[in-house]
Amino acid sequence: MNATLKQVSRPALALLAFALAGTLCLALIDQLTRERIAANERQAILSQIHVLVDPRSHDNDPLADVLTLPAEVLHSADPVTVYRARRQQQPVAAVFITTAPDGYNGRIRLAVGLAADQTLTGVRTIAHKETPGLGDRIEAGRSDWILGFNGRALTNPPPAAWAVKKDGGQFDQFTGATITPRAVVNAVRAVLEWARNHPDQLFAPAGTSDS
User: Fold this and answer.
1) How far apart, in whole angstroms, are the C-alpha atoms of residue 50 and residue 77?
2) What is the pLDDT of residue 76?
3) Who's near 184: CB < 8 A, 6+ residues apart?
4) Nearest 5°: CA angle at 16, between 10 and 17?
5) Is 28 within 8 Å of 53 (Cβ atoms)?
6) What is the mean pLDDT of residues 189-204?
7) For residues 100 and 186, is the Cβ–Cβ distance under 8 A?
8) Residue 34 — pLDDT band, cuts 50, 70, 90?
9) CA 56 to CA 58: how far, in whole Å?
10) How many CB atoms lie within 10 A of CB 172?
């Protein structure tokens, strides 16, 4: 009887050992993959920031100097993440990752760069589902429309003119596609208005989360 048990238990123990080894290998691979994905995501975000903020202009890590804002305070579809750039602890610029909720085909995710003097360093479209050949002209690679925000401020043009021309503002709409540029202009204006009303909070110490 004991011999029979030994004969049965040896394969079972071997199978258990293989199973444990496989589980450990999978866990290790998963950990390494997560770290690689996190590193890639970090680099992608940093690249987006440095499109709008010259990396030579700051000496801090913007990814470690973050402000999180509730979606509703900037009329965003998602909470807004703000990455701050500083040089010798003095404000240089901030990049807002905000989401316009009202594109023609849904949400439009944007990166809005704002210098410490409240002028725009630029705007870029991160993700959208707008119509190819029409709404997708909000992409820098499709047209230079998005570059028209460079150097703008809430006083340039005045607040009342921060709208597409169809709504009485100064920003061009696209032929056959007004909703898309309107959504982007409104989202950028919301960033400028919030920054104007909360200058101290904008560059408050890292880790602040408030409305």
Assistant:
1) 24
2) 97
3) 100, 108, 110, 123, 125, 138, 146
4) 90
5) no
6) 95
7) yes
8) low
9) 6
10) 15
- Structure tokens, 49: 């920031």
- pLDDT reading at 33 higher than 80: no
CA–CA gap between residue 63 and residue 52 (Å, rounded): 14
135-181 pLDDT tens trace: 999 999 999 999 999 999 999 999 999 999 999 999 999 988 899 99
Q: Are 146 and 139 in contact (CB under 8 A)?
A: yes
Based on the number of CB atoms within 10 Å of its own CB, is 18 exposed (0-12), middle (13-18) or buried (19 or more)?
exposed
Tell me, what DSSP letter sits at residue 11?
H
More confident residue, 27 or 145: 145
Sign of the CA dihedral running 127, 47, 162, 90: positive
Residue 13: pLDDT band (50, 70, 90) is low
Taking the C-alpha atoms of residue 184 and residue 181, their distance in angstroms, rounded to an integer, is: 5
Pairing type for strands 90-103 and 120-127 reads: unpaired
User: How far is it, in rounded angstroms, from Cα 97 to Cα 80?
Assistant: 6
Q: Residue 196: which H helix or E strand, with range? A: helix 179-197
